[in-house]
Design a protein that fits this description.
The complex is a heterodimer of chains A (265) and B (396). Chain A is 28% helix and 29% strand. With 265 residues, chain A is α/β, with parallel strands linked by helices. Chain B is built from 10 helices and 22 strands. The N and C termini of chain B lie far apart (68 Å). Classes of the chains: A alpha/beta (265), B alpha/beta (396). The structure holds flavin-adenine dinucleotide (2 copies). One flavin-adenine dinucleotide binds next to α8, α9, β21 and α10 of chain B.
Chain lengths: 265, 396
């Protein structure tokens, strides 16, 4: 089985702060991490490979030079080799241009059996890149995967996916693209040995020139959506705070009164 | 432009079968398209040897005026219209009026019965209906084929999808097929002085907001978060209901639904649709105790949700989880009981209109975003609130 996992390096959102003066995102000092949903994707790919005792897991990212750290983590988790799409020409890509660029790289790896993306990146938060890659490559997709079963003959896949009402079990032929969500597996913590071994694995650097495809579709110029303004939402501040340890009934009364006055209930 | 590589084509005829427009034929054992082709891409997708490609030219801005109408995908599930579709008709009405263009609903399903009329009552000028057995249950392929083809033939200016699980599965698929922009999970929509759709959305876990335009392509497309806009009131119309003549062949649908498990209890409210939501966190201690908070939810007619540990332990269903890896919600009232307020939880609920928090730790981070905080034992405070609500109700 040849399994391709597109991954993204993202800022640790939990550490993101807003500068109270300028009301902009303070990026300095915020650590970069592997997108948490992509950890599920990598883990699943490695498990499938381990189950069949053969195959190859290829990690792809499009991102600046420092995204290599995220690739290395995936290689330590069991990825076999990586492709790093890095070029200033790719910068400013919206999801279409991102998906187009990644799809070009995936085409150079044909034939492949399976692509596993994360459900969504925690910075851009769109959850669009996976389905867009699938459409560009012309393969079926199964989003929000919670349980994956590859048939013994490696020609079909059965996936339990999350829906708004519960679950759905979907069967389809390979190659296909899945997006991984929380609950799919418990991603492993790579051992020191695995981290050292990963240092020797191949990371191929690909630029716009060597990638192929239509360069007009890359980066900001290739993007049909344009971010025209970024602003910080009104920050919430704490309101009324009362102590209800001694007199819970009194506290409850005050709350209900407040809710009625506000017209909430 | 549709391009067929005749050297690659094996004459298998799959493209002929799946073409929704009867525009593909086998001529001398090779595929050949005719003038009925709309470039919908159904054939490209199924060709086993990748012999068919489409070259799409971006729309020349001088042609933008050919694109008219605000479309809303009216998602139905098991014969029930989702509320978000009606909410989008409410917002869509305002956008359509600003543009002086019609408001249209797009309904796919099987045995849709009264649904087109409901859409008309909610203000749609035109309802496009595709009623086929194959559309009874949502599948990526069938829905993408029909809506893409319909967009290509009817040329709308704006297409809106509810940002539900299915909406976020479908939207990007259509966007990629038609090489269009798609703005994700919008919470604000407006028309600017150049008649463009301004789409506003949160990103970075709600830390920033972005305004996004699609200046070079038409239609302009967005998925829109449920529960942000209101369904129209008093919008009843006599709509023009139009049957859509686009047939989907079984061969075009590559996924097969083997099993559907509905976890939602009958009549249960969804955290991402309800006007009020009550959640509990680890402070609840045991699954049996959830009932304490559940009673408050019932009293308020609110949806019941939980923090991640509650769901991870199997005490609640996954669709009840609020937060970064669960649902992002913005109800009118959010009550957190025994939730500490970790950032991954806050990003999922902090845009709620009114937030109430009950926690026995005076320094719990949840208090920093709450409009009304009660420091105290939830096992005493929550039942007291329920009692007080009942007392007030009885007085009315
Ligand atoms: C504030 C802001 C708002 C934005 N809003 C939009 C918008 O509404 N619409 C739009 O089209 N673009 C938007 N963008 C651009 C978008 O963030 C980028 O295109 C980004 O590269 C991909 O989108 P995402 O982060 O949402 O990824 P998602 O689509 O959420 O990612 C899903 C999965 O795709 C894969 N993936 C994503 N990015 C990469 C990558 N670079 N390399 C390898 N695999 C990857 C991963 O498996 C990931 O888990 C916005 C950008 C900003 C800064
Ligand atoms: C990538 C990632 C994604 C995540 N996604 C999510 C997500 O989607 N949703 C989410 O919720 N979390 C998410 N988390 C987990 C998050 O970081 C927190 O661990 C989690 O939200 C804590 O849940 P909690 O508040 O229920 O539990 P705790 O943090 O243990 O808090 C329990 C609270 O209950 C209070 N308490 C205890 N007893 C009582 C009592 N008798 N009366 C009143 N109060 C009491 C305590 O003071 C405490 O504040 C995510 C984490 C990561 C790393």
């Amino acid at each position: 089985m040849k399994i391709i996992v597109p991954i993204k390096q993202v800022p640790e959102i939990a550490e993101v702060k807003i500068d109270p003066e300028t009301k902009t995102l303070v990026r300095a000092g915020i650590p970069s991490i592997l997108n948490p949903f992509d950890e599920f994707a990598v883990e699943e790919a490695v498990r499938i490979k381990e189950k069949f005792g053969e195959g190859e897991v290829i990690i792809i990212t499009m991102g600046p030079p420092q995204a290599e750290d995220a690739l290395k983590k995936c290689l330590a988790m069991g990825g076999d080799r990586a492709i790093h799409l890095s070029d200033r020409a790719f910068a400013g890509a919206d999801t279409w241009a991102t998906a187009y660029t990644i799809a070009q790289a995936i085409k150079t790896e044909e034939p492949y059996d399976l692509i596993i993306c994360g459900k969504q990146a925690i910075d851009g938060d769109t959850a669009q890149v996976g389905p867009e890659i699938a459409e560009i490559l012309g393969i079926p997709q199964i989003t929000y995967a919670l349980e994956v079963e590859v048939a013994e003959n490696k020609k079909r896949i059965k996936v339990r996916r999350e829906t708004d009402e519960g679950f759905e079990v979907v069967d389809c032929r390979l190659p296909a693209l899945l997006t991984a969500t929380k609950g799919l597996n418990e991603p492993r913590l790579p051992s020191l040995m695995a981290i050292m071994k990963a240092g020797k694995k191949e990371i191929k650097l690909v630029t716009a020139e060597t990638l192929g495809g239509d360069p007009e579709q890359f980066g900001l110029p290739g993007s049909p959506t344009q971010v025209v303004e970024v602003f910080t939402p009104e920050q919430r501040s704490a309101g009324i705070k009362i102590d209800g340890t001694e007199d819970p009934e009194g506290a409850a009364k005050q709350l209900v009164e407040w809710l009625l006055k506000k017209g909430v209930i | 432009m549709l391009k067929i590589n005749k050297d690659e084509c094996t004459g298998c005829g799959l493209c002929v079968k799946v073409c929704p427009f009867d525009a593909m034929h086998l001529v001398g054992e090779k595929a050949q398209d005719d003038e009925k082709c709309t470039l919908c891409g159904a054939c490209v997708k199924v060709c086993p040897v990748d012999a068919i490609t489409i070259e799409r030219k971006r729309v020349d801005p001088s042609k933008f005026k050919d694109f008219k109408g605000v479309w809303v995908w009216a998602e139905q599930i098991d014969g029930q219209l989702r509320n978000v579709g009606l909410e989008l008709l409410g917002k869509g009405r305002e956008l359509a009026d600003k543009l002086g263009e019609p408001l249209c609903a797009v309904l796919l399903g099987h045995n849709v019965d009264e649904m087109p009329n409901i859409l008309a009552q909610n203000g749609a000028d035109i309802v496009y209906v595709s009623d086929q057995e194959i559309l009874a249950h949502y599948t990526t392929d069938a829905y993408t084929d029909v809506i893409s083809a319909l967009i290509l033939t009817e040329k709308p200016n704006i297409v809106l999808f509810g940002a539900t699980s299915n909406g976020r599965d479908l939207g990007p698929r259509i966007a990629a097929r038609l090489q269009l922009g798609l703005t994700a999970d919008c919470t604000g929509l407006d028309i600017d002085d150049k008649r463009q759709l301004i789409q506003t959305r949160p990103a970075f876990g709600g830390n920033i907001m972005a305004s996004i335009l699609s200046p070079y392509t038409r239609p302009q497309m967005a998925t829109v978060r449920p529960n942000v806009f209101k369904p129209p009131t008093d919008a009843a119309k006599k709509a023009d209901i139009r049957e859509v003549d686009i047939k989907v062949n079984k061969a075009a649908v590559r996924t097969k639904i083997v099993d559907t498990i509905i976890e939602m209890e009958e009549g249960a409210l969804k955290v991402d649709e309800a006007e009020m939501v009550v959640t509990c966190g680890r402070g609840i201690k045991t699954p049996e105790n959830i009932e304490v908070v559940g009673e408050l939810a019932t009293e308020l007619n609110a949806a019941l949700g939980g923090s991640r540990p509650i769901v991870d332990q199997g005490w609640m269903k996954h669709h009840q989880q609020v937060g970064q890896s669960g649902r992002t919600i913005a109800p009118q009232l959010y009550i957190a009981c025994g939730v500490s307020g970790a950032i991954q939880h806050l990003v999922g609920m902090r845009t709620s209109d009114v937030i109430i928090a009950i926690n026995n730790d005076p320094d719990a981070p949840i208090f920093t975003v709450a409009d009304f905080s009660i420091v105290g034992d939830l096992f005493k405070v929550v039942p007291a609130i329920v009692k007080e609500l009942r007392r007030v109700k009885a007085q009315k």
